[in-house]
Design a protein that fits this description.
2 domains; single chain; 3-stranded mixed β-sheet; alpha+beta; Arc Repressor Mutant, subunit A; 6 strands
Length: about 140
């Protein structure tokens, strides 16, 4: 028997502890059914309009942050006021191509961090995110 269209994203939302509202389901489908990718809130807003999902940009920002807080997305901040949301939540780093705005994954084992400063008292390390900023080239032709 064929799986219903929203079954996968419905279970993702439920496992993350998020109520599966119509807007969350629609946005989750846009985000997660296309495989791993990096998107901005504006990208998803444009896709939602094309898909006929009635949602405001503010709701998209709220939803992306809810998905991030629940572990469904990773937020990659490349500069103040400019963030991408990554559907690949496994450990990895990023190239950011400054001229094109492209962003692409760098496998975690391709970067070696030899030493970190001592953590503040009472703090524990969650993860280390590295964004390698480059000029020239494009993320479209990086493997």
């Amino acid at each position: 028997m064929a799986e219903r269209p929203y079954t996968h994203v419905l279970s993702m939302l439920q496992e993350a502890g998020l109520r599966p509202t119509r807007q969350r389901l629609g946005l989750a489908r846009l985000l997660f059914e296309a495989g791993n990718r990096h998107v901005t809130a504006e990208d998803i807003y444009a896709e939602a309009k094309v898909a006929g999902i009635p949602v405001s940009l503010a709701t998209i920002y709220n939803t992306l942050h809810q998905f991030t807080a629940s572990g469904l997305l990773r937020e990659v901040v490349v500069e103040p006021g400019r963030a991408y949301f990554d559907t690949n939540t496994s450990g990895h780093h990023h190239f950011f191509f400054e001229e094109t705005g492209d962003i692409c994954d760098i496998p975690e084992n391709e970067i070696s961090i030899v030493r970190l400063p001592p953590l503040p008292q009472g703090a524990s390390l969650n993860r280390v995110d590295v964004v390698v900023r480059v000029t020239g080239g494009s993320g479209r032709n990086y493997n």
